[in-house]
Amino acid sequence: MTTCPFHRCFKTWVTQQRKDLEELQRAKNEEPQNEETLKLLAEKNVKKYQEYFEKRSLLSIDDALFSFSSLWCTSFENSFLWIGGCRPTLSIQLVYTLCGMELENNLLEYFQGVRRDNLGDLSNHQLCLVNDLHCKTVEAEEEISSRLSILQEEIGNELLFEDANESSLRGNINGRIHNYKCLDDHAHAIAQILLDADMLRLKTVKGLVNILTPLQAVDFLVAGKKLYLSMHEWGQRKYMEHGRFCQDN
């Protein structure tokens, strides 16, 4: 079956996530004290994250609006998407959650002075940096969401209304050529919002990895990939339970 470029890019990304998860877990289990190895591995994963967004941005030059539909994702995955992907603040929330879980699971050792350098051992300085990143990311999310809301409302303005009607009612049916400049400009503006949302997602992950120690960064990346893949696979299972077509990603 032929798939669109966006779908092929997504399938390759999911496959890469599984491979990267195995590599991260292996390094975490075999070399937890080797900070240089863990640091390089974390940086390698962030670079792959950036490469994925760069591929998406190149595809978006031709059809950014298609990425918003995310037809290659299951309904469950689409239910929590924000402008073509997860909210950047989800990554920060994941760090807070992991910090609380690790601290609770090793509370006795913590009071005894034992430190494992996991996410339960975030220092006060690190927590302040994460909180600062959180505030800035929320502000950036709201700014991007506001821009998208304005564009969505603008579809009812006079020029876009005329272009849309010209497109749907006449088009080239009678051999008439119409220049849909307003609609094209509108689509390009939405494409830029998708690009900015992807860059914010990347900036947030980079910021967290820079704040965390190498082992903490690997813990965070492992948890993020597990969460992503489990939601993807759960959505596929629900598709099959309901007898719906589910492409093997």
In short:
With 249 residues, this protein is mainly alpha-helical. It has helices at 5-30, 35-69, 75-78, 89-105, 107-111, 124-154, 158-169, 181-211, 214-241.
**Elements, N to C (H/E):** HHHHHHHHH
Helix content: over 70%
Question: Any idea what the radius of gyration is?
Answer: 22 Å
What is the domain total for the residues?
1
Whole-number mean pLDDT = 82
- Helical segment tally? 9
Instruction: Give the total of beta strands.
Output: 0
Low-confidence stretches: 169-178
Roughly what fraction of the amino acids lie in strands? under 5%
Structural class by SSE content? mainly alpha
Please describe what this structure looks like.
The chain has helices at 5-30, 35-69, 75-78, 89-105, 107-111, 124-154, 158-169, 181-211, 214-241. With 249 residues, it is mainly alpha-helical. Helix 1 crosses helix 9 (214-241), helix 2 packs antiparallel against helix 8 (181-211) and helix 2 packs parallel to helix 9 (214-241). 23% of the residues are buried.
